[in-house]
Amino acid sequence: MRESATLAGGVLVAALLAACAPAADAPPTPSSAPAAPAAAAGAPSGAMTPNTLSAAELAEGWTLLFNGQTLDGWRSYKADAPPAQWVIEDGALSLSSGGGGDIMTAAEYGPFDLKLEWKISPGGNSGVIYLVKTLETAPNTYNTGPEMQVLDDERHRDGAIPSHRAGALYDLVIPSQAAARPVGEWNEARIVFTGSRLEHWLNGVKIVETSYGDADWAAKVEGSKFRTMPDFGKASSGHIALQDHGDRVWYRNIKLKPL
After folding, report:
1. Residues 172-175: contacts with CB within 8 Å, 24+ apart?
2. Burial degree of 140 (CB within 10 A; 0-12, 13-18, 19+)
């Protein structure tokens, strides 16, 4: 009985040791797997590298209007060279100080689907003005082109005027809801112009929709500050301008698809 007990005890110890040893082909534990890279602060989930086009976008006909490195394809409203106050900062087209005037594309576009991202400074004001024409009778970009408002709604006095808030079709159509992100974060904007209709999108929400060029559009213009500007809102194509309102602002991922 004693020999049998000793033998049984040895077998039990061997079995316990075998159970505790790791299997030769065991997969690594989860703690040994590499951690996923953290997303950049304020960047949309799954965002691509700024100022690039995906393979799908290229196939769909999208074009980059700003490459994040140069001001090729951009100019002043009344001059061939871009204003010196518009600079490239961390891959963004930025207004470093006011007084230089609006910067705009050298080419004209329309109809189009335009996408971009903007970030405004505290209390800041700017805008995306499109369908701009360089006419002798038009001293400013906004004398001809409608504007998507870029604004710090909470701190700027225009935030108290519904048709002047972020994303509005400035002084013409009030946004259907507040969709801007807090100051310091990037906002994803989209402007769709079909030739007869306009849409403004902000952070994935369609907040403005209106006809263009018809009697309803003419009534909107007549009821706005643009009623004294005879060439306003009449073009079917034009330049795209970023407004110098004297405040710091940043733009990136500016891309367009002709419609």
Report:
1. 172/146, 172/210, 172/220, 172/221, 172/224, 172/226, 173/200, 173/208, 173/209, 173/210, 173/220, 175/200, 175/202, 175/207, 175/208
2. middle
Q: What are 97-108's pLDDT values in tens digits?
A: 999 999 999 999
Residues 59-80, mean pLDDT to the nearest whole number = 97
For strands 112-120 and 187-193, give the pairing: antiparallel
Residue 157 confidence (pLDDT) above 50: yes
The torsion region of residue 101 among left (phi > 0), alpha (psi -120 to 50) and beta comes to: left
Which of residues 155 and 11 earns the better pLDDT score? 155
Strand bridging mode 125-132 / 112-120: unpaired
* CATH code 2.60.120.560 for 55-258: yes
pLDDT for the residue numbered 37: 31
Q: How far is CA 133 from CA 98, 105, 145, 202, 242, in A?
A: 22, 11, 7, 25, 14
